[in-house]
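Q: Hi! First time asking for a complex rather than a single chain. Here are the components, and I think there are two in total. Is that enough to go on?
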Amino acid sequence: GDQVEQSPSALSLHEGTDSALRCNFTTTMRSVQWFRQNSRGSLISLFYLASGTKENGRLKSAFDSKERRYSTLHIRDAQLEDSGTYFCAAEETGKLTFGDGTVLTVKP
Amino acid sequence: EAAVTQSPRNKVAVTGGKVTLSCNQTNNHNNMYWYRQDTGHGLRLIHYSYGAGSTEKGDIPDGYKASRPSQENFSLILELATPSQTSVYFCASGGGGDAETLYFGSGTRLTVL
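A: Yes, that's all I need. Here is the structure of the assembled complex.
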C-alpha cells in the first residue's frame, strides 16, 4: 500500500546467513505486525509490536519507538523453511494497512 | 490456537451472479476483517466489524457488502460479481486493543467468469 513501503521486494539468501527486511511508513503508526505467507497461501502472524523489540528464535523485530515511522525484521542463520513472502502491516486508526511484501528465497 | 475457518475454499461464479463468502471464528474475538489479495500485492481491506451487528467500510468496499450476524460469523457478499473481483479473499479475526494479533483463515480463491 501507499502508506507502507516494504523493501526489498525480493531477497535471496544462502542457508546460514543473516539479513533484514524493512518497512517504512509515510505517517506515524500506532503498531506494526509482521506475517509470513507460505507457498500454500497461509498467513502466519510472526510479531505484533506497539513499541520496542521482540525476538522469537532466529527472528527479531523492532519498531522505531520515537517517530514510529519504520520497522525491521531480522532473520539470523536463515534456513530453507524461512522461505516465503513476508508482509508487514501497520495500524494507524484501527485498520491495518499491508505492504506489498518481500519474497524471500533461502537456498542451500 | 486461534481458529478461523473460511468457506468455500474455491468458488467459480458468473458475471452478474451473487456470491457469499463465509467466515467463522471460534476465539470469541470482537474484530473480524475481510481482505483481498491480488498477485504480487499485499492484502487490501474490504470490510471489517467490531462485533455482532456492526460492519465498517475498509479501503476498497465498492461492490461488496458485509454481514456480522453473530460474534462467530462474518460474511462477505458480492451482489453482482464482476471479473475484476477475481482474487483470493482472506478473513481474519483479532481480539482488539493492544493485543490485536490477527489470525487468518486459509483463504477463498474466487474466479468470476
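A: DSSP finds no helices and eleven strands in chain B. Let me know if you'd like any chain examined more closely.
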